[in-house]
Design a protein that fits this description.
single chain, about 300 residues, alpha/beta, 9-stranded mixed beta sheet, 3-stranded mixed beta sheet, 12 strands
Length: about 300
């Protein structure tokens, strides 16, 4: 029974991931989350594009504003009446990159490199599947899922290289590459999630970099985590499920590599050095110190040819 139930949740993740971009817009994702919430007594709330702008979510709004289908930040909350003893005082926040389509923006993807970019929402799809499983299993644990949803398009209204944007936590970012968009939407979701939900652990999944695929192929996800307990939990979960994860380093040198001449940081360094680590280094600027945080880059394992 449990196997069938988890299988159904995996299929939900696959359904979301495979839905084409003319159907799967940020609003469509929000509607899917509302439906899931209604079916299982979860709470769903959506921060609209207008609200995100007024809150100062410069990353999410910059990435999504070029599209006719405007971005939003969706939250899905599983708050059971009774918690297990082990789960008391614990609060897990999951974040999934939900770029419903990625053209690369003005840093346009070339030579059919855009084909398959509906799968750039696989982080969000995985988190959706996880919430489906959590709800079905009636897990006695408080869990919130955040889905920063946007379509990265080219238009006269789109953001461009050289723009400087101010993020939700006040950091200024010089855009060097509009195709490093996932980290921009995630950064706002991460800092908002830390502030609003005060997580005791946060796990974020994203199809973030081509570099992690070069490093680890399609056999393993790359992950970054400085908290020993959270690392143990992730690795033991990976062992139990037959999913491979491999830890990559994140050092001060990597964060220094993201410094900008004109703003606090850049969103991508033109140098290919430590390419998969650049995304992790960028996200680190948005995590509240003291929050155990794991970034899992699933670019290589999210979909297979």
């Amino acid at each position: 029974g449990r196997g069938l139930s988890i299988g159904a949740s995996v299929n939900e993740a696959r359904r979301i991931a495979a839905t084409p971009p003319n159907i799967c817009t940020p609003d469509w994702v929000a509607a899917q989350c509302r439906t899931l919430a209604r079916a299982h007594g979860m709470r769903c709330s959506v921060i609209s594009y207008a609200k995100a702008r007024s809150l100062g979510m410069g990353g999410l709004t910059a990435v999504g504003r070029g599209s006719a289908h405007k971005p939003c930040l969706i939250s899905l909350e599983h708050r059971p009446r009774s918690l297990s003893r082990a789960a008391r005082g614990k609060h897990l926040v999951l974040v999934g990159k939900t770029i419903t389509y990625d053209t690369g923006g003005y840093s346009l993807k070339v030579n059919n490199g855009m084909k398959g970019m509906k799968y750039d929402k696989c982080g969000g799809a995985a988190v959706f599947g996880a919430m489906h499983a959590i709800a079905h299993a009636k897990l006695p644990l408080h869990v919130v899922a955040l889905f920063p949803a946007a379509e990265n398009m080219v238009s006269s209204n789109a953001y461009r290289p050289d723009d400087i944007i101010t993020m939700y936590n006040g950091t200024t970012v010089e855009v060097t590459n509009t195709d490093a968009e996932g980290r921009l939407v995630l950064a706002d979701a991460i800092s908002y999630g830390c502030e609003k939900y005060k997580p005791t652990a946060m796990v974020e999944l994203s199809t973030l970099t081509g570099g992690v695929v070069t490093a680890l192929g399609s056999w393993s996800a790359g992950y970054f985590c400085d908290d020993a307990k959270l690392r143990d939990a992730i690795e033991s979960a990976a062992d139990r499920t037959g999913e491979k994860v491999w830890r990559l380093p994140l050092w001060k040198e990597h964060k220094d590599h993201m410094k900008s001449q004109h703003a606090d940081i850049i969103n991508s360094n033109p140098s290919r050095l430590a390419h998969p680590i650049q995304g992790a280094a960028f996200l680190d600027f948005y995590v509240d110190k003291g929050v155990p945080f794991a970034h899992i880059d699933i670019a290589g394992v999210a979909n297979s040819e």
